[in-house]
Specification:
Distance between the termini: 28 Å
Helix content: 40-55%
Shape: extended
Mean pLDDT: 75
Largest sheet: 8 strands, antiparallel
Number of helices: 8
Length: 248
């Protein structure tokens, strides 16, 4: 199938979205990168997805070290340098083994080594806290919810601590007296279950409670009465839908 033949298909657009999200691996990722170089329509689709997901990057909270960390580091360095400079002007230089012994027994040398170790520990701790926080915020699975025209309307994130949240990627028109209801479906025999009801498109946590959650699980948004579906099942038109994929 040529790029021109499938450029408007849902699979073609979904492939571009999965590439941007980092959901492809191995040969699939290699093939997508090759297509990105050869297929201008695919490159356009990838760029369109990147613009859609730019909103996700804006939600990341910057992590900064304590406000007084650098001033404490500078003060500690200055406290070590000044005594060393004073000692150098008062003590004549010597050579040979005696000089080596002097450095070996120097309190300044060991204080400097201890301070360097403490500084490395502080910086490592700051980096570790940042890495742990980023890992906590990194979703394990994502579901991109597409409209009938294959536009990304929202994304569902699932996290290691059990949190599930939906983030809209575009505005959704909600008429007066209506609301957006979010559903999930993991087993057609059980049917869809409501996991959220919002009056407008906004970031919202989803209430999965004890419901199953796994790969290829369907999420969808429907337009329902302001109080929610009267039947406990979707009754209004489907605004967007998509299935979960493992985040690499």
């Amino acid at each position: 199938m040529s790029p021109a033949a499938d450029a408007t298909s849902p699979e073609y657009n979904a492939l571009a979205g999965e590439y941007v999200l980092g959901l492809l691996e191995g040969q699939e990722r290699d093939a997508a990168e090759h297509r990105l170089e050869q297929d201008s329509a695919f490159a356009t689709a990838v760029e369109r997805w990147r613009r859609h997901f730019a909103a996700l990057d804006a939600t990341a909270t910057p992590i900064t070290p304590p406000a007084d960390l650098w001033s404490r580091i500078e003060a500690g360095i200055a406290g070590l340098i000044q005594p060393a400079a004073s000692a150098a002007t008062l003590r004549p230089a010597t050579a040979g083994p005696g000089r080596l012994a002097e450095w070996w027994n120097s309190l300044f040398v060991w204080r400097g080594a201890a301070f360097a170790g403490a500084l490395a520990t502080i910086l490592l701790a700051v980096g570790l806290v940042g890495a742990l926080d980023r890992a906590k915020r990194q979703p394990l699975m994502v579901a991109v919810l597409l409209t009938d025209s294959n536009a990304a309307a929202a994304v569902v994130h699932t996290f290691a601590d059990g949190r599930v949240e939906m983030l809209p990627l575009q505005s959704i028109d909600v008429p007066a007296g209506k609301a957006l209801e979010i559903w999930t479906l993991w087993d057609r025999a059980v049917g869809p279950r409501s996991v959220g009801l919002i009056d407008r498109a906004r970031s919202t946590p989803l209430r999965l409670d004890n419901l199953p959650l796994g790969k290829d699980q369907l999420f969808e948004i429907t337009l329902e009465p302001a109080t929610g579906s009267p039947t406990g099942r979707p009754t209004g038109p489907i605004i967007a839908k998509g299935t979960t994929s493992q985040r690499l």
